[in-house]
Amino acid sequence: MRRRRKAKRAVSASALSQMGVCERLVVFEHFEGKRPTPAQSAALQRGLRAHRQFAAEGVSESTRKGRCFIATHVFGEGQETQVLRRFRDRYLRPTYAGRRVILVYCRLEPRVCRAMERWPMTRSAVRAVIKPLVWLATCLLADQEGSHASG
Amino acid sequence: MPAAELWLLLASCVACVTAAWAAARLVRRRSVKVDQGMPEALKDHTLAYSERTFRSGDDKQVVARVDRAYRGRDGLIALVELKTRQAERVYLSDIIELSAQAVALAGETGEPVARTAWVVVESAGRRTAHRVTLLTLRTVWDLAARREALLAGAAWPNYPATSGVCTTCPHRSQCRPGN
User: Fold this and answer.
1) Which one has a higher pLDDT value, B24 or B78?
2) DSSP state letter for A91
3) Contact A24 B175 (CB under 8 A)
4) Is the pTM of this model over 0.90?
5) Nearest neighbour of A26 by CB, restricted to B46, B84, B150
6) What domains can be seen in chain B, in order of their start residue?
7) What number is the average pLDDT over the span A55-83?
8) CB contact, 8 Å: A66 with chain B?
9) Mean pLDDT throughout B63-80?
10) How far, CA to CA in Å, does B85 sit from each of A55, B57, B91?
């Protein structure tokens, strides 16, 4: 079989999963592109529709379970929320202690959010508490990104 | 208004109400079935990620889009993959895909991913959850290395184990020994 282009180092999960179907198909599709039959195209469209519905159900399910985020409640989907999410993913998630902190936070957040909905005055107090944390997280992330860039 | 027309109007109203009731019942039954498709074991889990792309951060990158990932009380992430197909069964490709997703998610977030995952097969309007055990990290890297070798021409691609795959394959005409 002809070699048309150099293989990329990154591989997608769906491309890798084709290895479980047929190795020859993997090579054909890589060099000659996908050639879906009309039935396969229709199945693909059906799959995309089902995935959109599945994703929407996931969102409504998490809402039904009362899942909410204090930062989103206070700042909306703003810069501060993005910083806190990045801090959570980079600093808290990788360590055991960090994951315990996230679990405690997950248990507390519905109550705090309910309180903020009930007494809107508390929102500014919570914002005042979170602001310094956002500043600290921004500094830490900037420091880490700076050291990555220089290294 | 003549009595016959009155009866016709009444019959039309009854038919409309019956049709609306039947349609509502059909929709409700369908949505209940869809809800029932999720595995019982994930009832106490919270949805952590939905339709999100992850990249493993190491040299050999795996990129994967996760349909849903649930976080258990112990902090373990359980993956769920939706598949729409006629046959209500799980294939090896589903397990490989979920294993690659686990590698990508663990690589990006550093969170531990459970060896047990779920393939939810949507078939004829209803969903069924199938429990699967994921491949090891080593096996996923071996597969990725084998794929690279195939694309580089360093290895010869095998024929599928069953000929069922070939019946719908668009490359069937070219797929002969020696090509």
Assistant:
1) B78
2) I
3) yes
4) no
5) B150
6) 37-157 (3.40.1350)
7) 69
8) no
9) 90
10) 18, 33, 11
